[in-house]
# Entry
Amino acid sequence: MKPRKIPMRKCVVSGEMVEKKRLLRVVKNKDGEVFFDRTGKANGRGAYVKNDEALILKAKKHHILDRILDIKVPDEVYDALYEYAETHI
# Structure
């Protein structure tokens, strides 16, 4: 039996290719709402950040998700990512 293909995505902060399940997804939907997608399946434009507190802080400091999603990402989204990364390493 052939082994299953592991989905890979690129972290927008570090630029490295990582397994999708080790990344956190932020989504901008068609209504212009931006939120942390815990399921990884929400409709809309997604950006992935590695599950690492340092990278999340770097993304917040340099407004990386703002540029990628072309919209102002609220601090609450970064805070939700950081809280999730602290508890789910």
